[in-house]
Amino acid sequence: MPELPEVETTRLGLVPLIDKTVASVIIRNASLRWPIPQNLPELLQGKTLRALSRRAKYILAHFDNGVLLLHLGMSGRICLLEQNEAPQKHDHFDIVFVNGQVLRLRDPRRFGAVLWAGDNPQEHMLLKVLGPEPLEQDFTADYLYRNIRTRSVAIKIAVMDSHLVVGVGNIYASESLFRARIHPERPAKSLSKAECARLVTEIKSTLSDALAAGGSSLRDFFGADGNPGYFQQQYFVYGRANDKAGEPCRVCGAPIKMIRQGQRSTFYCGSCQGLRRV
Ligand SMILES: [Zn+2]
Fold it and tell me: What is the pLDDT of residues 220-256, one digit of tens each?
């Protein structure tokens, strides 16, 4: 699943489209996670893309008359084509620009989204419920401590909740908890203020490292320029164990463990990340 760094890489890859004007919009299959609005061609034709921003894993394309939200879902990718090429099976949506460039959404599993958010996107139902951005100043140790004090859920589950903080997906949750030396099954409310400080620091640095590397989460992930964004990142724990055995921890040599939490795989070192405290 594309995580925040992949989405940011995609956004950066689309920057050459800024100041370009829309010639046409092609909807081949509107049945994504939510239907693509049928009036998008009328809304966007003749309008110019003015800016591209990001909120959580949504790319916000700011046109003259409002904002288009783009989301990659589970398997989507957005390519910038220099000229119109014949669409393939899972190419559901195109924005064709006057200069011939094309923004194309390919999404085999169709959990992605293309939605019109008008001129007040922060009030859109999908955006207004989101917690702070992990790399922004308002995501602090104090904020985390205050907001998990009453939560009994495991800390790994808590940090992946976009109401608490956005953009901490499965890979970065496991990696940040390892780097902060916190067991993923610890009840969120059991973390001390010092542990919250370590975790916030490590979430920020783990994501910053991944952003610098151009995104890393999917073997078949491609940036907007069509080049593989997959970076052979040296994960500490993620993907380094299965049900039966684990590779040695890069810090202490103990075998990495894998467990299931909330239907997702969690990876951790039982030695570096201490005993589960309940
Ligand atoms: Zn270890």
Answer: 445 555 554 444 467 999 999 998 999 999 999 999 9
61 is in which domain, residue-wise?
4-123
pLDDT of residue 217: 47
Centre of ligand 1 to C-alpha 197, Å, is 20
Catalytic-residue membership of 185: no
Please indicate whether residue 3 is annotated as part of the active site: yes
Same domain, 112 and 147: no
Q: How far is it, in rounded angstroms, from Cα 272 to Cα 189?
A: 20
Q: What's the whole-model pTM score?
A: 0.84
Would residue 135 count as lying in a domain?
Answer: no
Is residue 244 among the annotated active site residues? no
Residue 28: both structure tokens together: 């081949």
169 and 236 co-located in one domain: yes
**In which band, very low, low, confident or very high, does the pLDDT at 277 lie, cut at 50, 70 and 90?**
low
Catalytic residue among 3, 6, 8, 175: 3
Q: How far is the CA of 125 from the centre of ligand 1 (A)?
A: 42
**264 labelled catalytic:** yes
* CATH label of the domain that carries residue 60: 3.20.190.10
Catalytic residue among 55, 57, 77, 179: 57
DSSP 247: P
Q: What is the CATH number of the domain that holds 237?
A: 1.10.8.50
Q: Which of 68, 92, 123 is the last residue of a domain?
A: 123
CB atoms within 10 A of CB 138: 9
The CA 266 to ligand 1 mean position distance, Å, reads 15
Q: What percentage of the chain exceeds 90 in pLDDT? A: 82
Question: Residues 72-86: pLDDT tens digits?
Answer: 998 899 999 998 889
Q: What is the DSSP letter of 51?
A: E
* Assigned domain for 136 exists: no
Asked whether residue 22 falls in the same domain as residue 95, the answer is yes
H-run or E-run covering 42: helix 40-44
